[in-house]
Design a protein that fits this description.
Elements: E1 17-21, E2 28-29, E3 45-49, E4 56-57, E5 70-73, E6 93-96, E7 116-120, E8 137-141, E9 160-164, H1 168-174, H2 181-184, E10 189-191, E11 197-200, H3 208-214, E12 224-228, H4 236-240, E13 250-254, E14 273-277, E15 281-285, E16 294-298, E17 316-321, E18 330-334, E19 338-343, H5 354-364, E20 386-390, E21 394-398, E22 400-402, E23 406-410, E24 426-428, E25 438-442, E26 461-465, E27 485-489, E28 509-513, E29 532-538, H6 540-546, H7 553-556, E30 561-566
Parallel strand pairs: 1-3, 2-4, 3-5, 5-6, 6-7, 7-8, 8-9, 9-10, 11-12, 12-13, 13-14, 14-16, 15-17, 16-18, 17-19, 18-20, 19-21, 20-23, 22-24, 23-25, 25-26, 26-27, 27-28, 28-29, 29-30
Length: 568
């Protein structure tokens, strides 16, 4: 990304594909890029994309890419000369942006289009599209386009029309009852499977009548809906009028200030992804979201100042689950002050009682032993692969945390001392899972305090990253009989490893960034199953102690694979 000049590539005789992207410092592609006469002799595919400040693409040379089959440039500010395509007799696909070549009609353009054309970011397609007699495949990628030109009927050879991320109005026009249907009726294949988006902002000013006019429930093709508030005013009736069609796949709610989520949320059986950004309160039933794969919940933006921490007292979210959600794969809980995830195999609790359930749990405190679930219970989330708890102060799973293939638990990077471990009593489906789990623990101080809940887990791979304790390991992991791999990274305050680590008979791989550690802890010698030991970020003195002539060699001489690396 820091590159300010492209190297000379044109004389790479066998180069067939060239993609250039994400270089904001590049303002000009100069003639030196081509490297002399007859550059890019075998180039078949050229794509220049996401070059935000590109202003000049020099084509002073006679660029004859005779093998060119695919050409795409996203120039943003620059108009290109069509001389770049001279001689490209095999051109198969051309991706075109508005004014890319400055064509005002088709006379200059037709010689460069063979069978495929991709039009990106057009507000209107040109009428001369009908003159492309050989065009077979047309792909339109634009949220601005609302109608197709009448001339598209004249493209008699057109076999495939693909609409990607297009305006929902265009989709309506191309439906069987739409105004553009007669234009595309002769086309053999019409595809419109990509995400159809609608973003509604400033909902605090939306009236019920305005919400009703939108008629979201009638928009069958709508796939992604985003609802965003920017003020404290809340109109519950208007929100209920924004009920989308049951075909909706993805829903995003931002800055929601209501006390509960809309009733229609339970009427979205096809919802795959639910994102709740900066939502401070609400009660969410997962039972009704049987297609849900990805759940994201946050109560606040990124915490940068100590005063921002006061926001944590204002958040209170409850998740209720009584029925299996078999498709759920990923859950992220970020920057939440108070969150209760209540699971039960009892009949589903009605939403009107959600608040009372949450209040009773808060008042009643911890669950009694007699009320604990068995770890042999059926899991409600058999497909869960990822569970992240990031910068949360009070997360409780009552009574069980879902089993997941991967856990990530993070404190607040700027304020690691504020961390609190999530609370739970059992691990749902642990005994029935045939797969192993991994865990990452990051940005935590006093890592051993109040971590008893972790004893219920059985993790195979653990990574401790950027924790500031002198001994950055929670003792509760002694109960993990399956732990095979342990990594301790970026813990620059670490002084030693705990003596009890030597009791972990299952550990086979250990990686430690030692930083200022002076001697190798004696517990290493007792890890009789250890197969691989990697010590990195070491001082010279520490590395010397671990050499064959060093004082600590006897502790590691029986380990099969040992690697000791100095700090850079």
């Amino acid at each position: 990304p820091r590159c300010a000049r492209l190297p000379s590539l044109g004389q790479l005789a066998n180069l067939e594909e060239l993609h250039i992207s994400d270089m904001p410092n590049i303002r000009e592609v100069a003639t030196s890029f081509y490297g002399g006469r007859n550059p890019f002799r075998k180039l078949r595919e050229l794509c220049i994309n996401k070059m935000e400040n590109l202003e000049v693409l020099s084509t002073n040379l006679e660029l004859r890419c005779k093998e060119m089959k695919y050409f795409h440039v996203d120039p943003r500010k620059v108009e290109l000369s069509p001389v770049i395509l001279v001689g490209s007799s095999h051109l198969f696909t051309l991706e075109l942006e508005p004014n890319m070549f400055g064509f005002s009609d088709a006379s200059e353009f037709l010689q460069y289009v063979s069978t495929d054309l991709c039009c990106c970011n057009f507000a209107a397609l040109p009428d001369w599209l009908g003159d492309l007699a050989s065009l077979e495949h047309l792909e339109v990628y634009s949220a601005k386009l609302q109608r197709l030109p009448h001339s598209i009927k004249d493209v008699t050879s057109l076999k495939t029309l693909t609409l990607k991320k297009c305006n929902y109005k265009l989709r309506e026009c191309c439906s069987r009852l739409g105004e553009d249907y007669d234009k595309i009726k002769p086309i053999k294949h019409v595809y419109a499977h990509e995400l159809i988006e609608l973003n509604i902002k400033h909902l605090e000013g939306l009236s019920s009548s305005e919400a009703n006019i939108i008629e979201l429930a009638q928009k069958e093709e709508l796939q992604f809906l985003s609802l965003e508030w920017s003020g404290p005013v809340f109109n519950e009736v208007a929100l209920e009028e924004l009920q989308p069609h049951e075909n909706l796949k993805r829903l995003c709610i931002k800055n929601y200030v209501g006390g509960d989520f809309p009733n229609w949320l339970r009427l979205l059986p096809n919802l795959v992804r639910l994102e709740l950004f900066d939502v401070q309160s609400g009660h969410l039933h997962l039972d009704y979201l049987q297609s849900l794969e990805d759940l994201y919940i946050s109560s606040f933006p990124v915490i940068n100042r100590p005063n921002d921490l006061n926001l944590y007292d204002k958040s209170s979210i409850c998740i209720l689950s009584t029925q299996p959600v078999k498709n759920l794969r990923r859950v992220t809980l970020g920057r939440v002050g108070k969150l209760l995830w209540k699971t039960s195999t009892l009949p589903c609790i009605e939403q009107k009682d959600d608040k009372n359930v949450f209040q009773r749990e808060q008042q009643g405190g911890r669950h009694s032993d007699s009320g604990r679930e068995s770890s042999n219970q059926r899991t409600l989330f058999p497909g869960l692969q990822y569970l992240e708890i990031d910068c949360c102060l009070n997360v409780r799973f009552e009574p069980s945390i879902p089993w997941s293939a991967r856990y990530i638990i993070s404190g607040i990077k700027q304020f690691p001392f504020l961390f609190h471990w999530p609370s739970f009593y059992q691990v749902m489906g642990l005994s029935t899972s045939a797969l192993s789990s991994k865990m990452e623990i990051k940005y935590i101080e006093n890592i051993s305090s109040d971590s008893d809940s972790l004893q219920q887990l059985d993790i195979e791979e653990l990574t401790v990253d950027s924790c500031i304790d002198p001994v950055p390991l929670p003792k509760c992991i002694l109960g993990w009989k399956s732990l095979r791999k342990l990594e301790i990274l970026n813990c620059q305050n670490m002084e030693t490893l705990p003596e009890w680590l030597g009791d972990m008979a299952s550990l086979r791989e250990l990686k430690v960034e030692t930083y200022w550690m002076k001697t190798l802890p004696p517990c290493i010698e007792r890890l009789t199953s250890l197969h691989t030991l990697t010590l990195s970020q070491c001082t010279k003195g520490f590395k010397q102690r671990c050499s064959e002539s060093g004082e600590d060699w006897s502790k590691i001489e029986l380990i099969e694979n040992v690697q000791v690396e100095l700090r850079p």
